[in-house]
Amino acid sequence: MLTLSIIKADTGGWVGHSAVHPDMIVPAAQAVRDAVARGLLVDGHVATCGDDLSLIMTHRHGVDAPVVHSFAWEVFLATTEVAKRLGLYGAGQDLLSDAFSGNLRGMGPGYAELEFTERPSEPVLCFLADKTEPGAWNLALYKMFADPFNTAGLVIDAKMHAGVVFEVYDLYEDKRIEFDCPRDLYEMLMFIGAPARYVIHSVRSKTLDEVAAATSTQRLSLIAGKYVGKDDPVMIVRCQSGLPAVGEVLEPFAFPYAVAGCMRGSHHAPFMPVSAGQAHPSRFDGPPRVMALGFQIKGGQLGMPRDMLADPSFDRARAQANEAMDYFRRHGPFEPHRLPLENLEYTTMRELEKRLADRWEPLLRPAATLAGAKT
Ligand code: F6R
Ligand code: MG
Ligand code: MG
Predict the structure, then answer these.
(1) Which of 96, 113, 182, 257 gives a 20 to 30 Å CA spacing to 60?
(2) How many CB atoms lie within 10 A of CB 35?
(3) Sign of CA dihedral 49, 226, 262, 258
(4) What is the distance between the alpha carbons of residues 337 and 317, in angstroms, rounded to a whole number?
(5) Is 159 a residue whose pLDDT tops 70?
(6) Spatial distance between the Cα atoms of 160 and 172, rounded to a whole number of angstroms
(7) Residue 266 CA: which ligand is closest?
(8) In 3D, which of 56, 51, 54 has the Cα closest to residue 20?
(9) Is residue 286 in contact with ligand 1, taking CB distance under 6 Å?
């Protein structure tokens, strides 16, 4: 069995929250090379999306492995040191704890992990996002694995007819549920259509009995109890031979649907598909970005990544995203650009409620007002 892990963290931004400084990538890449040399990892690749640094790693330790998680933690401590030295913005912002204790759950960094038996040819897409939240993958995963208007294979490939099982997490209540689709499609949509709370964690093909996709489902704000930056999720999707084809996995991103997360974690904005070179959100800390690195894994080796969303066939989606961004921006501080109050991660409202408490007066009904006027 092989495990593919993407572990990511924002340990400092260059400039503001827009990118990772090249000097942070150097020690991370060196640490990965060393880990491969001493046999901890089979292979590894360092990638960045916005101000988030991702370690894309193959290994034989399984998911949630303390040796792999502690390795990533050490790398993030090292990149935090660089960020501090260079005065980069928000140095160490995703490292919520001082001490590592076994695995990264609740520690701040996000991770998506998949354990599988490598097929003779193993095409895998690693998606990295910035300025959004884990639920941002819900719409795309639904389209890839459940919508025949997106995925022709659901109709044409007999191996896909039995459907898939979506595993969904309730991030507020720390619970999970499995939806057997297509049977449970409509019920599932009621939940995953609210991506701030319900997040698809994994997808399994019923015919192949293989896990096909995994996402990072951590929410920093829920872990930390206050706003500490967006979670900027990652996702792994295995493709082809009874799973959605590479083109079917990428197709949902041809529509720049709205996601939560840009500017102070408080706004909806279009999810813009970009090449790795364009994954540096600068307008209103956005629009949120998604990039995809494609790997053809062999013997655990990742090989050279392909920058899948660099394709000009996504140019129109980028143009649409820019138009949608203009449209959202003109709402200024109004919903639906601004998130509904219950999802707002900044605590301004709580503070305001306290500060203005004395100035709120009860509304009096007309009769009561008249009665009051007589006395
Ligand atoms: C951070 C982010 C940004 C910041 C914003 C304000 O992940 O998405 O939108 O929230 O730049 O940052 P502060 O409050 O640090 O000045
Ligand atoms: Mg940041
Ligand atoms: Mg980020």
Answers:
(1) 96
(2) 23
(3) positive
(4) 19
(5) yes
(6) 32
(7) 1
(8) 51
(9) no
